Amino acid sequence: MLKNVLIANRGEIACRIIRTLRRLGIASTAVYHFADRGAPHVAAADHAIELTAEVPTAAYLDVAQLLAAAQAAGADAIHPGYGFLAENAAFAAAVEAAGLVFIGPQPEVIRLMGDKIISREFAVTQGVPVAPSCKQEGALEDFVAGATAIGFPLLIKAAAGGGGKGMSIVRSAEELPAKAATASSEALRYFADGRVYAERYVERPRHIEVQVFGDGQGHVVHLFERECSVQRRFQKIIEESPAPNLPAALRDRICASAVQLAAAAKYRNAGTVEFILAPDGEFYFLEMNTRLQVEHPVTECVTGLDLVELQVRVAGGEAFTLQQADITQTGHAFECRICAEQPEHDFRPATGRVMTLREPVGEGLRFDGGLREGLAVTAAFDSMLAKLIAYGENRAESAARMREALNELVLLGVDHNVDYLSRIFAHPVFLAGELHTGFVVEHAPALTAAPLHPDERAAVLIAAILGTDEFRRLAYDCPEPHASIGQWRN
Amino acid sequence: MPSTLTLDGDTSTLDIIGRRPQLQVRVGDATYTVEELPASDDGASTLLINGQPYTVWRTREGDRIHLKLDERTFSVGYQEAVVAAAQGGNAGNEVRAEMPGMVVDVMASAQAEVAAGDPLLVIESMKMQITIAAPRAGVIETLHVERNSSFQKGALLVSLHALAE
User: What is the complex's ipTM, to 2 decimals?
Assistant: First the structure.
């Protein structure tokens, strides 16, 4: 068993990892940039070490400082969380070279799966279906000719990318050259690698992914699927397990493909194989994420397993003996990503300060946050603030619990998407489980906040003005004549 | 004295028009009876507006009030009230004191053009500071007071005349 784990991350995922470490009796070491000195993950950990960097995110990407912090704290392992260095093969290798345990897959597997082109080729050799595609070998002009041969619509992506950066849909041969050039320049800017590739774009696709776990020797199990089709700007905002309206036989085939791919890579620790599911039931390998996913809690709810515990135990040298037959999928879980953003302005990220926070509490609810009142929400980090997870016996019960929890959640001081998420959970098409990755765009009008009735608007304004001392004095303290003319200033 | 609030880009004025037996607030053209129930332990309060109950969470941050009213979250802009003390009765050309007091600040200067609502003076009366705003657009003809001068109820503070054609 590991003794002390350094978490090379921040926010909700650092807090979530620390919770499991504490339950297992393992010491936790947090790292933080000065800007995060008051953050909950720093307070939650047993030890905390400050990293220095001019830009806050750079601190969490500084391999040398992270390794030095691990040595200083006496940590024997590093958990990378997600984002930052979680899928950086060089970091994983450096951790191991320093004599520490990297809680994740082997560096060479991260490298294999980290390149979209190489990982697709690997999937093809394993008989895992991939969408017809074309990759850029040399000049952009040759790529354009090859891509045209696949037919339209096409999806162009950065070869080295992720998170929707450098991605665009091309519907005709005329717009291909310009969009290919744009994608390439975006790819170069974000990933320092200008190579792009194109693949058939599936209309109304679903995003289905499979949680897998391996022992590094070829024994791999799956922890069933997650549906992550509700996305905005190519990024997930609602995930669930099981996927709704997915025939059991198709689910089994998708999960079996994921296991086959991971087993062939002798995958170690937790990973996720992502697929695109077409309306006709065909599915294609998208990519493999070689880390713990943001949305892992829905899998934990339906399987009853603690993924971080599994990660830590296997990384600590315990034999991974869990068999596929031991893993069941029971009930239904949803996760909502609570983000600082303005849904009414194309989900533009928002900044502010958490002034009031009341986390919803109730049966089947879980709130994974790294928030506290007074915390500044800046543009320095990702806009995701917390995750709300609801579990129930079935999809309807889980959705009802989520809606109620979203309505109970109070988060004041920074614009967020909680009301928007609540409207999704009231939408009949969503509740029917008829999902595809264009859901948010297709139903944009219905998901817009209803205009306020004049009486409702008046209620909002009256409730607001009662929050000012000036008005309260006028309303309650002042004798009649004085109150009508001014406000107290002392 | 109306207060000015902004919600979703639209501005509204709120005014207290009665306090007893219950608070009555005018919002735009409509009047609402308002009753506040004691806040619960977790910080939520209940507001009865025309008898309709609302659960309210609220926090103020400078000129913004963030609130959750039942199931919806809002952010309302609040401008500290600028008082047009001389509204009505004098065709807007004379700004008179409604109560005795003292001038603590003078923003206006003689012969300057002003727009309706522009602050002219800050006065202090009965421990309150009140901003006196121009009741209409025009030109300041005479400033009858200066900083630290005191005045009686009804005293002429500022005279305006209309803008030249």
Answer: 0.84
- Domain over A132-200 is classified CATH 3.90.280.10: no
Nearest by CB to residue B61, choosing from A355, A416, A461, is A355
Residue range A142-188, pLDDT digits in tens: 888 889 988 899 989 887 766 666 788 999 999 999 898 888 888 88
pLDDT score of B98 = 76
A417 min Cα distance to partner chain B (Å): 10
What is the C-alpha to C-alpha distance for residues A257 and A254, in angstroms, rounded to an integer?
A: 5
Residue linked to tokens 């906040």: A449
pLDDT value for B1: 67
Our CA-based measurement puts residue A243 at a distance from the nearest CA of chain B, in whole angstroms, of 28
Angle of CA points B149, B151, B156, to nearest 5°: 110
Span A472-486, pLDDT tens digits: 988 887 554 444 444
Q: Which CATH number fits domain B94-161: 3.40.50.1100, 3.10.50.40, 3.40.50.300, 2.40.50.100?
A: 2.40.50.100
| Test the B interface: residue of A345, A357, A404, A410 with most B CBs within 10 Å | A410
Strands (E) located in B80-137: 94-96, 101-106, 113-114, 119-125, 128-133
pTM above 0.95, yes or no: no
Q: What is the pLDDT of residues A74-115, one digit of tens each?
A: 999 999 999 999 999 999 999 999 999 999 999 999 999 999
Q: Cβ contacts (< 8 Å) between B129 and chain A: which residues?
A: 486-487, 489
Backbone angles phi, psi at A298, to 5 degrees: -65, -35
Closest chain A residue by Cα to residue B70? A407
The answer to whether the CB of A40 falls within 8 A of the CB of A10 is no
Between chain A and chain B, how many beta carbons pairs sit less than 8 Å apart? 156
By C-alpha distance, the chain A residue nearest B23 is A475
State how far residue B100 is from chain A, nearest Cα, in angstroms.
12
Structure-token match 């696709």, residue found: A205
Q: What does the alpha-carbon distance between residue A231 and residue A229 come to, in Å, rounded to a whole number?
A: 6
